[in-house]
């Protein structure tokens, strides 16, 4: 019987592929006319290795042997002009740095009012309102019968993730950010907040773009995940980090909303389009009394019989694997784990009344993948076995192993319209990934593997 081993290649270094001989000066990032709010920008490009490349008259140091370069330069607010030169070749770029400076008059900055989308929150849960305004202004907001004074913020704001590439990932000035938070004691739809600014005898008002609703604790809503693997995140946007995907059938109560996003009661956020509503009044909370394992070809399956399908999360390390069931309570006494080829030990704990954790210890530091699914209300954790031949082919030695009974699937990463990053010579990441994958295919086939 053949075994299948899957490998994925992404973000491979493009610097191992030299620039074409005689290639001219080229800048692939940024393009002329680029606009950014960053304080620095880096220039990615290439030129023939012989000679010197200058940036605004200064030589670019530390070019690669192939002639590639990636220096960074500070940006002044407004338009910045950069000239790169190699021999007789010249590239000129105009880069604009935008600065969200507060206005000089009694005005609120366009697009700075939050909440920026319709939101719903729990009773007594803090709701914060913010705006950007000139220094020394009096800014307030009216909503739900309250008038809340917004205070000038001393805390800092963070730049986008890409700022780490130019060593500019430190917090910056809030630039006239005003904020205030309050709570509400009664459920209902409060409508849009009304922001007001007073400065030097002038008064202006502006309606906020989002509405506020306080959820009724006696009439909660629940949803069920429709996607095979629902994308859960730490907050209500794709800027927030991913959490463990939620298997199809997962049920949870809605504890808040923001635009198209739902906050589920265990803390993760998911797009409403990946869910369907359930009849009101349901409160998904599971109990479990026992669990058992079974061995099927190539896999160990651990089955957790639950009274309802609840959210889960995974923490995976070298030789350990922790599965957490949220909104679940254990009534566990007896469990059955067979003599398993990969599981050394399985322990469980209930760190708090609404969360159960299962701690797996494996016989090897190498894990071969897992899957999670619901079969009705049974949570099935599938742990993949290593291919049978791997115990004898000597992957950790310098000898060339016989892979004749193994099928290997190589996924180059990216492809089609999804090109990935672009290297200094203008070659897209998908091209480099595909070349490396084909080279690996040849090496594996030499050892007898069937490669897909």
Nearest-integer average pLDDT? 88
What is the count of β-strands? 39
Oligomeric state of the chains in view: single chain
State the share of residues found in helices, binned by percent: under 10%
Structure in words:
The protein has 452 residues and is mainly beta. Helix content is 4%, strand content 42%. It contains 1 helix and 39 strands. It has one helix at residues 429-446; strands at residues 3-8, 26-29, 35-36, 40-42, 44-46, 53-55, 58-59, 68-69, 72-74, 78-86, 89-97, 119-121, 127-132, 138-143, 146-152, 177-182, 188-191, 194-199, 202-207, 212-214, 222-225, 229-230, 246-247, 251-258, 261-264, 269-271, 275-277, 286-288, 292-296, 299-305, 312-316, 320-326, 328-330, 343-352, 355-362, 370-375, 378-384, 406-411, 450-451. The strands form 10 sheets. Strands 12, 17, 20, 21, 24, 25, 26 and 27 form an 8-stranded mixed β-sheet that branches. A 6-stranded antiparallel β-sheet has the order 13-16-15-14-18-19, with no helix packed on it. Strand 38, helix 1 (429-446) and strand 39 (450-451) form a beta-alpha-beta unit. Mean pLDDT is 88; it is low at 11-22.
How are the elements arranged and paired?
Layout: E1 3-8, E2 26-29, E3 35-36, E4 40-42, E5 44-46, E6 53-55, E7 58-59, E8 68-69, E9 72-74, E10 78-86, E11 89-97, E12 119-121, E13 127-132, E14 138-143, E15 146-152, E16 177-182, E17 188-191, E18 194-199, E19 202-207, E20 212-214, E21 222-225, E22 229-230, E23 246-247, E24 251-258, E25 261-264, E26 269-271, E27 275-277, E28 286-288, E29 292-296, E30 299-305, E31 312-316, E32 320-326, E33 328-330, E34 343-352, E35 355-362, E36 370-375, E37 378-384, E38 406-411, H1 429-446, E39 450-451
Parallel strand pairs: 1-38, 3-11, 12-20, 28-33, 38-39
Antiparallel strand pairs: 2-5, 4-9, 5-8, 6-7, 6-10, 10-11, 12-24, 13-16, 14-15, 14-18, 15-16, 17-20, 18-19, 21-24, 21-27, 22-23, 24-25, 25-26, 29-30, 30-37, 31-32, 32-35, 34-35, 36-37
